[in-house]
Amino acid sequence: IYLSVLLGIVLSYSITEDKAPPNDKQIQDGDLCLFDMGGEYHCYVTDITTTFPANGKFTEVQKTTYEMVLDTVHTVVNRMRPGFTWREARIVCYRALLRNLVEQGLLVGSVDELYDAKLHRIFMPHGIGHFIGGDVHDVGGNASYWCWTDTEAKDIDWYDPDLEWCPLEKNMVLTIEPGCYYNDVLLDPALADPTQGKLMVKSEIDKYRGIGGVRIEEVFIVTPDGCEIISDVPEL
């Protein structure tokens, strides 16, 4: 279980001072709790994530963030089908999140412009999912990135290199885990950057600082003509 957003950390926590502060913050009224959970049944595993308010009630900015991430999940899942590559899924995911951030007034400009400026990496600095089955992060994909050309290497997302050009096939089981976070370590340099900063609305972004962020992770199986979510993550 990861309560990562309470510390402004994105994916996991550390118990060693040399890498990150220990995840020992006491949950306070108004905090968001992010639970990233791996369960096992008869040697098959799952990996789901849900985010919820500790006191049972979202603040306005927490609710907005949750709804942006949930919309991103649904947008990606609706595109999944055999033959669709992980690279295509990744682009759909990041662009959907950027669209939501524009709609809520945190960013300005076209989605194309925002994507080219890599602003998705400021708000979602991780990959979009992974294989699952015999292990929480199961084997799979195509670990051929060692022989990519310089042009190919510059154009990929190094969060999921093994999956980058992996086409989905019927009966594959994977996770999809979009998130949106407000991490000062990433936001402040981006705001100061002339290319990225001009596309960011600081007055709006500042309203979201301090809440941590939201991640929702579902498990899906690829069907002959699409995909089916087989996890049962509560949607608030």
Q: Could you characterize what this model shows?
A:
The chain is an alpha+beta fold. It is 29% helix and 15% strand. The protein is built from 8 helices and 9 strands. The strands form 4 sheets. The protein has a 3-stranded antiparallel β-sheet with strand order 5-8-9. A hairpin with a 2-residue loop joins strand 2 (40-41) and strand 3 (44-45). Helix 1 packs antiparallel against helix 2 (86-103). It is globular and about 50 Å long. The model is unreliable at 1-8 (pLDDT under 50).
SSE topology string: EEEEHHHHHEEHHHEEE
Strand count: 9
End-to-end separation in angstroms reads: 19 Å
Radius of gyration: 18 Å
Percent strand: 15-25%
Average of the residue pLDDT scores? 85
The low-confidence parts are 1-8
Q: Residue share in helices?
A: 25-40%
Largest sheet: 3 strands, antiparallel
Major sheet: order of its strands?
A: 5-8-9
Number of helices: 8
Q: Which structural class do the helices and strands define?
A: alpha+beta
Q: Which term fits the overall shape?
A: globular
In short:
It is built from eight helices and nine strands. With 236 residues, the protein is of the alpha+beta class. Helix 1 runs antiparallel to helix 2.
What attributes characterize this protein structure?
8 helices; 15% strand; 236 residues; alpha+beta; 3-stranded antiparallel β-sheet; disordered N terminus; two-stranded antiparallel sheet
Give the arrangement of secondary structure elements.
Layout lengths: L31 E6 L2 E2 L2 E2 L2 E6 L6 H18 L8 H18 L7 H6 L3 H4 L26 H5 L18 E4 L2 E3 L2 H9 L1 H4 L4 H4 L7 E3 L2 E6 L2 E4 L7
Antiparallel strand pairs: 1-4, 2-3, 5-8, 6-7, 8-9
Helix pairs in contact: 1-2
